[in-house]
Amino acid sequence: MSENPATKVHDLPLWQMFRLGLFQMGLGTMSLLMLGVLNRVLIDGLKVPATVAVLAIAMHQFVAPARVWFGQLSDSRPIKGLYRTGYIYGGAVLFTAIAFVTVQCIWQLGASMPEAGWSWTPAVTGWTVLLGGLFALYGLSLSASSTPFAALLVDVSHEGERSKLVGIVWSLLMVGIVAGAVLTSGLLRQVQAGSAIAELQAPINFLFILVPLLVAGLAIISVWGIERRYSYFLRDKKPQKREDQITLVKALRVLTASRQTGLFFAFLLTMTISLFMQEPVLEPFGGEVFGMSYAQTTALNAFWGTGTLIGLSASGFLVIPRLGKQNSAKYGCVAVAFTFGLIVLSGVWQSANLLRGAMLIFGLASGVTTSGAISLMLDLTAQGTAGTFIGAWGLAQAMARGLATVLGGTVLDIGKLIFPDQATAAYGLVFGCQALGMLLAVYMLSRVNVQEFRENSQVAIAKILASDLD
Q1: Domain 8-241: CATH superfamily, name plus number
Q2: Is the pLDDT of residue 195 over 50?
């Protein structure tokens, strides 16, 4: 009698960890397209107000609370005997298809705009609302795929190998951003700054056919046969606590459970917003201020992505062991603030090489900052509440990134009102706000008392969890 494959579980080999990472690699490439290429098409190409453009784009992050439902669904309703794989495949097919439909909506928005420029005509309003809806659907389908994938990582690994698996998968996410930047730059090398919409459509349509097909293929390859062979959950039917099982309301209660958790949460929130405000404005900055082509501005992501990879790796082996977690996060924040100053200077001096160098340094600094902050969070959180605290932060971070996207575009529009004929100054206002935000984050972190955090936070969080059970 043959053995049921679902009952036999093996240790996860290293090459299978890298295969799982292909899924995240694909997500990194898709984020480059949806956040990098499309925001430049909207802001620089169509001259859509930055606030409107980023509000539409941020919709895919504001639907993050839906991942609670997708996580619970994949725990309880298997598809063809598997709890995760079917959702991962279905979500991947959906979000890659919606990406192409979103581009077509953008072309229709451009065609509906009056010759005099942006105004809220019924046609423009209708296409703008539809665009926001498509980004929301993209975010929902992304959650439908990525949340069961995160659950699968827990299902197929034991505690001793999980940190290695997460490290590999996270690194491949950054590799996907760098690879996507190189691929996109190659495909858009003929598109120049100031190109008419008619000249943009063909190459960008091809890009949004080819890359999503590749990403969907990577998603299928990454998890093919993994769950049936390696899943402990498939064998035991006992879901483990994961970050996708905590609601937004509970997340906020956990993160503000005591004075110290509130301080640390305020630091993490300020750091995240300050770190990602530049995402929707970086590529339009390269286009408007430097006259860079679409290929050149997309390639900027390769610089910061490479820097982030190096920063994440170096911080674990070189920086944190020497400086400590709290100091690493502090100095990383200061370095990020300094980098935003370099970015502003690159615009003032019209030095594209300084901008590229600044993006590399930004990646290094943000890698150290992120690694230090996450390591400190893991270190501060007492045993028994770690999963809850990290889960709460995971959900809050997704909302913070959405807020950062909206703030970046809104501050840019304010800058354009204050400095109507000075693009460098308008964009400089965004980067200046980010620098100030980073320095504020340093001040908040300096007020975090590690000993008080450990003594009070576990009790406070435990009370919240106990009240939920009553």
Answers
A1: MFS general substrate transporter like domains (1.20.1250.20)
A2: yes
